[in-house]
Design brief:
This protein has 448 residues and is mainly alpha-helical. It contains 23 helices and no strands. It starts with 10 loop residues before the first helix and ends in a 25-residue tail after the last helix.
Amino acid sequence: MTAQGTDEVTPEQRSLLRRAVGAAAIGNTTEWYDFGVYAYVASYVGQQFFPGPWGTVSTFAVFAMSFLFRPLGSLFFGPLGDRIGRQKVLAVTILLMSGSTFVLGLLPGYDTIGILAPMLLLLCRMLQGFSTGGEYGGAATYIAEFAPNRKRGFYGSWLEFGTLAGFGLGALVPTLLILALPEAAMESWGWRVPFLLAGPLGLIGLYLRSKLEDTPAFKNLEASGNVARSPLKALIKGHWRQLLILMGVVVLINVANYTILTYMETYLEDTLSVPEGQEYQVLVPLLLVVAVMMVLITPVGALSDRVGRKPVFLSAAICFIVLPYPAFLLISQGTMVTTLLGLTLLGIGHVQLVGPLAATLPAMFPTKVRYAAFSIGYNLSTAAFGGTAPLINESMVEITGNSFFPGYYLMGAALVALVPILLMKETAGRPLMEENDRTSGPQAATSG
């Protein structure tokens, strides 16, 4: 792992790399744990904060509104990370992110404080969205700048392993509570427990991140005096084309992420009319598919190191054009086996999207604007197409009565993403260190 881009890594550097990957990935785990919990207890949250027939839709509306604050967070944290360093900002974002999720579990409901209850819920989600705006872009940048050039796909895929682990944990905890507790207990206090567990999870992440130093790429940039005084201005002036390409690719990534991981539990329960007490018919297939994707994610990341990022992304887009219709046709049969098969078809495309993601998008930009570019581009697209996906899917299924709408939505997003995927440059094996980022001396010898 040298400034020249070789892949020779000493045992000490390998240990540092593993700690860096773990510390970065735990933030993604915390973020997606929150999303998983929120999705799996959406109906209970709706009962507590939005009494009436539109409780679940209102809950997803709050979820979507919180995503409007992600671009604001990216505009704040992204340039800040390019000015003062990645590690400092990532320590702040994980604290805010996990803290807002923890507080949500303490909020009184509508019956106790009336209209203040949904307002406080929205406030927690706004803070969560704001902090998340600086989290994922920073974590991906952090891993990418530590990883060896020819293994960046493999190491970057661990960030998405954290995504799936967080969602899996966020699905598993409510599932166990739903199966173990009487319905009255779940409605009263059981739904709060998963949110409260975000507190300890965030403290662990904060501890791990506080023990790390900043990335070699940023330290070399800082030592050379080339840190951008205004990363946002430099980004808009010199890299707007790459920014648009990134946003176009992220359209499909977000529609897939938030349709498959966040919305599907609610969709399956409503569409398949699962009887009370038999929620396992939905929860078990979802958890099994997440487990399979966790097994495949790092091999797919490593595959992108060998064959390139673009072929893997193109394969994912084609899968989402071809497979959603048969997937939802299988799901509509209403059995655990056909549901599992349908979800597996969706998972095949999804794992190809997220496997090379963290290695690909940061490499599109130079070090001095990398954090800002990834965070801003990713979160603008996420606000428009990610957080709104559950709301759009739920509303359109309700309005049209067409249970296949989420499949069509995935197919449309894939068609849109084909163009930027074809336009993006291949980044596999490309050094992230530009000549003007480098300095001579001991720091340069450890850069990735």
